[in-house]
């Protein structure tokens, strides 16, 4: 064979290989995943909505991928401590983060460098937003309020009535400060290290009011140990249709949502990201998983990695502006 023909043969072969690769799905091009147990880091204590969602999703995911999914709680620095741990992990899809949107919001409130100085938009790769949960203002029964109007009347009779949140820079913190401004009421923010500790404080009466995601709070609401006063959505939640919004009760502008996102280290290959996204989307289609999430006050979502990236960008902009407008700082 002549050198010219040999070169032509190599060129044709290379072009054929490139064409085959171009028409091969990303998951088929991906490095093998998983090849070992997957760690799912939750940057809050056990017992809250994010932890519950991680364990429900992780259990079903493990069955699909043939590897254990280990949930690791790493609370601190408004979700940034756990996020930083994941950002520094090997970008191979075996260390993931499941966090509420607190990790996007808290950098606007905490001191610069908190959590090791992680930049969520640069250091983490969005994979999927598996769920959302409505935020609700609840009261201890002994506070004596059955609705938002009564709660505000009682709060105005005192100075600095404490309200709890899942932490500085959490969506709950912002909801409380928005309520203070809109209702012109004096409330004292008391941050806790996650949803579960904040619920414990509300159950004990340590705080009279609490902004909380439904995930983790549902059993206590159903048992009458916490009284729901208002949801922070634009419209009523299908999971709590009898609880009116703050706007319905004469306090406009208290609109805050909470979503959960799954992230990987920034350099994780796109094919691995797509594979994980695909697997979690399939998990969310499972009727048993959906029923358990909904029963806990968590609404399954899912979708593309780009959708989560859009959530991150939008919340970063919105809450950055709100932090300045409301002068929200860490307490």
Concise synopsis of the structure shown:
Helices cover 42% and strands 18% of the residues. The chain contains 13 helices and 11 strands.
List the keywords.
globular, disordered N terminus, five-stranded mixed β-sheet, 11 strands, D-Maltodextrin-Binding Protein, domain 2, 331 residues, alpha/beta, 18% strand
Textual characterization of the structure:
The chain has 2 domains: 30-132 and 258-325, 3-Layer(aba) Sandwich (D-Maltodextrin-Binding Protein, domain 2), CATH 3.40.190.150; 135-249, D-Maltodextrin-Binding Protein, domain 2 (3-Layer(aba) Sandwich). The longest helix has 21 residues, at 305-325. β1, α3 and β2 form a beta-alpha-beta unit. The chain has a 6-stranded mixed β-sheet with strand order 2-1-3-10-4-11, sandwiched between helices. Strands 7-6-8-5-9 form a 5-stranded mixed β-sheet. Helix content is 42%, strand content 18%. 48% of the residues are buried. It has 331 residues and is an alpha/beta fold.
Strand content: 15-25%
**CATH-defined topology of the largest domain:** D-Maltodextrin-Binding Protein, domain 2
CATH class of the largest domain: Alpha Beta
CATH superfamily of the largest domain: Bordetella uptake gene, domain 1
Strand order of the largest sheet: 2-1-3-10-4-11
Q: What is the number of E strands?
A: 11
Q: Portion of residues in helices? A: 40-55%
């Amino acid at each position: 064979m002549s050198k010219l023909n040999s070169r032509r043969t190599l060129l044709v072969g290379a072009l054929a290989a490139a064409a085959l690769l171009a028409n091969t799905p990303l998951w088929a091009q991906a490095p093998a995943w998983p090849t070992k147990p997957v760690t799912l880091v939750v940057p809050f204590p056990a017992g809250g909505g994010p932890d519950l969602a991680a364990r429900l999703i992780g259990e079903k995911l493990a069955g699909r991928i043939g590897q254990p999914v280990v949930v690791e709680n790493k609370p601190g620095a408004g979700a940034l401590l756990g996020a930083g741990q994941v950002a520094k992990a090997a970008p191979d899809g075996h260390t993931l983060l499941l966090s509420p949107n607190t990790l996007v919001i808290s950098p606007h409130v905490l001191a610069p460098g908190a959590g090791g100085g992680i930049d969520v938009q640069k250091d983490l790769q969005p994979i999927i937003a598996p769920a959302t949960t409505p935020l609700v203002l609840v009261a201890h029964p002994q506070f004596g309020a059955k609705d938002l109007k009564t709660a505000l009347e009682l709060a105005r009779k005192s100075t600095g009535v404490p309200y709890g949140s899942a932490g500085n820079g959490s969506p709950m913190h912002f909801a409380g400060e928005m309520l203070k401004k809109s209702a012109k009421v004096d409330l004292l923010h008391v941050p806790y290290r996650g949803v579960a500790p904040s619920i414990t404080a509300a159950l004990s009466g340590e705080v009279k009011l609490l902004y909380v995601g439904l995930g983790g709070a549902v059993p206590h609401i159903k048992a009458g140990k916490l009284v729901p006063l208002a949801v922070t959505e634009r419209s009523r939640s299908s999971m709590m249709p009898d609880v009116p919004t703050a706007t319905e009760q004469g306090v406009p502008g208290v609109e805050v949502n909470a979503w959960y996102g799954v992230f990987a280290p920034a350099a994780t290959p796109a094919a691995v990201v797509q594979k994980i996204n695909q697997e979690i989307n399939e998990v969310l289609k499972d009727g048993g998983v959906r029923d358990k999430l909904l029963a806990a006050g968590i609404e399954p979502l899912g979708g593309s990695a780009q959708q989560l990236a859009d959530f991150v960008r939008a919340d970063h902009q919105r809450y950055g502006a709100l932090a300045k407008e409301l002068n929200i700082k860490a307490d």
